Each structure stands twice: as structure tokens, then as C-alpha cells.
Amino acid sequence: MGKAGDAAGSSGGEEEPLDVKPLRSLSPMFPPSFGYSPSVSPPRAPPFVFISPFSPSAADQAAPPSSDGYRTPPVRRKPKRKKKKISKDEPAALPSSFSSPEEDPEAVEVVLMTFDALRRRILQLDEINNVTRRPDMKAGATMADYDLRANKTKRVGPVPGVAVGDIFFFRMELLLVGLHSQSMAGIDSAVARFGGVAEAVAVSVVSSGAGGYEDQTDAVDSLVYCGQGGANLDQKLERGNLALERSFCRGTAVRVIRGLKDPTSSSASSSGTGTGSRIYLYDGLYRVSEYWADRGRTGFNVLKYRLLRQPDQPAAYATWKAAETWKRNPAARPAVRLPDLAAGAEPFPICVVNEVDAEDRPAPFLYAAAFSPPAPAGGAAGCGCEGACVPGDGGCACARRNGGELPYSGGGVLVQRRAVVYECGGLCTCSVICRNRATQKGVKLRFEVFRTRARGWGLRSWDPVRCGAFVCEFVGDPVGELCKEEEEDDEYMFEGRSSEEGRRKWNYGPELLGEAAEEEAVAPPVVVALTARRRGNVARFMNHSCSPNVFWQAVGRGGGGPPQVMFFAARHIPPMTELTYDYGMGGRKLKNCSCGSSNCRGFFNQA
After folding, report:
1. Phi and psi (nearest 5°) for 231?
2. In sequence order, which ranges of 384-522 are alpha helices (DSSP H)?
3. Which end of the chain is more exposed for a tag (fewer CB within 10 A), N or C?
């Protein structure tokens, strides 16, 4: 513009030609106030006829090249990793569920279970060898080697197998299930065709507040998202920023994943990531309602996008924020019928909530926080470790009972399911801080007992629960001590039989890490029968599900005595999700099941 004006005012000279450039290569121009609000609504998007294929690398996207800055790191050229072929002689290396179509919702569950099992095992080996690295990245690379992923094709809108409100503890998990295919970049895009026009639109964003970005994340139904490009230069309408602008113009949905601080973790070391502990909450579908440029804290222009949550979706971030409020102030929880069911016996009060009917509270019983088994008459001596048992210590007697390895990671997460997990006991010299006393340190979660709509009372947690984390113990009396007549209609009886199939499904595949398959000695299944009818704890309120999110594990302490029943998370569990386990099918009575799972068997064991 300046050049044209100079030419017009010159004395008879030829006009200078304009420097014509493609429109998308030009930086956006905004008024001096740095504000811009489009005055028209985005047009309705025509149907999609093509979505670009999934790619985990920012360099392989069909979208424009990545920008500089934290959210879109510079691409380093690396040789392509060759996918390993699994021979027919290695059937255990590939879970059977991967033979299903990639849009099978169950594939997501298998992918996440396999990834976390690998990550736990890699972390266990690293702790033994005193190696510091990112086990989540190593597990992700192993999954990529074997092409173990779900939803490989990028898509606009929902992702099969991923529900609104699901939580993830690692960015790699988002990538493996096809929710957000960028391991670091905050904006993911794909090329779609609108009629005969191909354009890159945003398919998902991760808002974590990291890297100095000024996202406004307090509202539960809206989000102001800062564009990519860092805070040390004026951001430009290109790459991911341009994809968000195209989503605004086309009116396409954008998946929003909120990065939140893990309230159950006080340090990064407890998660085994080597980085800050965060949880990624899938908050559903949003649409870009407007965008503008604003001056950031560093004085440079920052592109900002306002995204509005679409209606008729399950609550996700709203539920998270409500649970955080109740943890700070339990009195703020509405519909409480009893402030503390445990009467101070647990580290945190356990309220009883009924938002369904007029039932006041559960029938009276004697609350006991822990089961006190009789002292064993004999048994093996305890370990002689000082302070705490250390991974890789060949002299630890308790490690030898567990096959030579401690069963828990440094954060107290169970690494593998076994017929019996042996913890340190009263004869051991290690202290209470020992990792091999994970279930002896009390309940860490904040529970509530709530009234369900069709299954009586249930149990859920205000805290998110990580896969493999200790949930609670089942406290009760041995069945043999009660009259048989009283057992017939006992709805609070636990009758469990350890399952080798369940262990194999949850544990990692050794072949994926080049290890020989573990040959655990064949032993008769562990059978436990307890009743919490007269005396028990919160576990007595856990209902049955044919697709449970909790499993039970027999845990022995010391060298003798009967094993105790401990519950661990089978997968990541969002706050305010009912905790359930599989009652099994081997009892004296079968009862009609109303769990609502897609895998419902129709019946379950009624003791």
C-alpha cells in the first residue's frame, strides 16, 4: 500500500509493481486495538467426503507444516521405525481383540490395557536397573513397532470407544486411541473435502496451560484457547491456527481435551513419567464461535479462539470441578444423608448421598477399616531389609516370594496380577514407608456411598483412580464362622476364585518386550469367602458389573496366614464413576444382572 502511494506522488516515473503473494502466506492484519469479532455466523458445513489417514508424526500430517513453539515443536528427521511383524509362532504377542475392525469400541480398551501393562513393566525393569527414562514413551514406541493402535483414521467428531469424561494419564494414550494424534502439539488437524474443496480443519485441541500459554479454562462449557506459535513472536494465521480458523468457517466440531493437575500425585516421580503429573480429561465436542488477536503478557500478538461446548453431552469437566469443590469443603456436597459412614475410622469422611428416592441410609452394621486375620502359628521369616525394600535386591525374602521382583512400582501401583501377591508383614524389619506395604497405608481415595436408580447402594470416588492403583480392602468375617442358614440370602458376601484368564488379560505380553513367557507354577486357584453382613467397610457397597473397572487380588502378608482381599483399579477411572467388580458365576445362586454393560452375561453370582 505504501509503495503505490509513493508511485502516485512521483514525477512521471513508472509505478512499482505490487508484491503479490498467496493470501494464506500473509500475516493477518488487525485494528490497533488488537480485537476482531466476526459479525457473521459460520455457514453450515457440507458433508465430509474424505478424512486424511492417521499419522502419529507432526511431519506426516496432510495439514500445513508445523509452526515453532512448544505446541508444535521443530520436526527432526529420523529414520522411519520399521513395524515388527508378529510371527504365527508368537500368538501371545498380539491380543486377539486386534483382529477386530479398527472402529470396534473394544479395541480402545485393549490398546489402553496393553499400553499400561507395558509401561508398568518397563518402569519396574528401570527401577531394578536404576535407569531413569520415560517408560510411557518406550511403551508407546513398542506399541508402534507392532502397529497396536485403535482408530488409525483421523476423523471429525466422536472417536469410537472413547466416551466423554474418559481420563488419560499420558499424552501417548491419546495418540494410541486416535483421540489426539500429536504427542506434543496442542492442535491436531486433518484434511477434509467440502464439496470439491479440500481444507485442513482442526479435529482436536489439548488445553493444558503449559508452556506459558494463556488459555482461559475456568468455565465448564466454554474455553478460550490460545493459538500455537509461542509467546516470543507475533502468532500468525497458519498451520494449526489456520486449521482452527477453517473449523470456525466450516462449523466443524473440535474435540477438547483438558490437561489437569493430578490431585492424587504430589510429585512426578510417583507417576514414573519424569515430567509433571497431569491428567487429560476428554470434555467432548466444541465448536469455534469466534477468534481474535490480543496482546499477550510478553507484548506480542496472540491468536485466541473461543470454543463453546455442544449441548446434550454427559458432564465431564463440570463433574471434575464439582468433586474438587467437595474435597475442599465436604459440606458443599448436596443431598447428603450421613456425613461420615465410617465415623472417623478412615482417613477421610465417607458421606452417604441419595439423590434418587426417600431411602435415608443403609442398614446399620459395624464399620471396620481393616481386616485383622488371626496371627499365623508359623511360617517363613520376614525380610531383613533396612528402611524399605529396594528393587533388584536379591537378598530380599519378600521379593523372592513374588518371583524375584517387588510387585509394586514406586508410586504403589500394582505391576502384575498374580495368584497371590506377597507383601511385607509383621516379621519384616522394613518400615511402613516400604513400597511392598502398599495396601497397609490406609485408603487414599475419598469415597461416597450413593443411591443408584436400580441396584440399591453403590460406591464411587471423588478422586480419579489410576490403572493398577489400590482402591480398598474387602473387610468381613470368614464365612465358616457364621451359621449356614444366615448365608443363604446374604447380599454382602464375597465369594471369589482367582482367575488365570483374568490375570493374563490384564498383565503385559512378555513377547512384546522380547522376554520369555513367565512360567508361573501351576497352583490350585485361591478361593476366599467373606461376609460383610455384620462387619465391613465401603467395599460391601460395590456392585457387580460384567465389564468391571475394579478387580480383586489375594494379598498375603508375611510368611503365613490367610490371604486378604484387596481391590485394584482395572483401568483409569474418572471421578464420580461407580466402582464395580465381577461377582463371578460360580456361586450357589444366580441373580439377574442389570449392569447395562454391552458384555452383560445376564446373570451373576449371588453368593
Report:
1. -120, 10
2. 397-401, 484-487, 500-506
3. N
Q: Is residue 212 part of a domain?
A: yes
In tens, the pLDDT along 484-531 reads 555 556 788 898 887 777 788 899 888 899 888 766 555 677 888 899
Residues 183 and 69: their CA atoms lie apart, in Å, by: 14
- Please check whether residues 266 and 401 belong to one and the same domain: no
8 A C-beta contact, residue 382 and residue 427: yes
Question: Is the same domain home to 452 and 482?
Answer: yes
Residue 416 lies in a domain: yes
What are the pLDDT digits (tens) for 331-362?
999 999 999 999 999 999 999 999 999 999 99
Q: Tell me if 303 sits within 8 A of 323, measured CB to CB.
A: no
Are residues 290 and 168 part of one domain? Answer: yes
Structural domain boundaries, residue 334:
329-373+395-507+523-605
Torsion of CA 501, 505, 511, 517, to 10 degrees: -30
Residues 443, 307 share a domain: no
Could you tell me which of 114, 208, 97, 104 has the C-alpha nearest to residue 162? 104
Give me the CATH number covering residue 406.
2.170.270.10
pTM of model > 0.85 = no
Q: What percent of the chain has pLDDT over 90?
A: 57
Q: What's the pLDDT tens digit per position in 550-605?
A: 999 999 987 667 899 999 999 999 999 999 999 987 666 788 888 888 889 888 87
Instruction: Residue 266: give its domain's CATH number.
Output: 2.30.280.10
Q: How many domains does the chain have?
A: 2
Contacts of residue 342, defined as CB under 8 A and 6 or more positions apart, other chains included, come to 349, 350, 367, 369, 537, 538
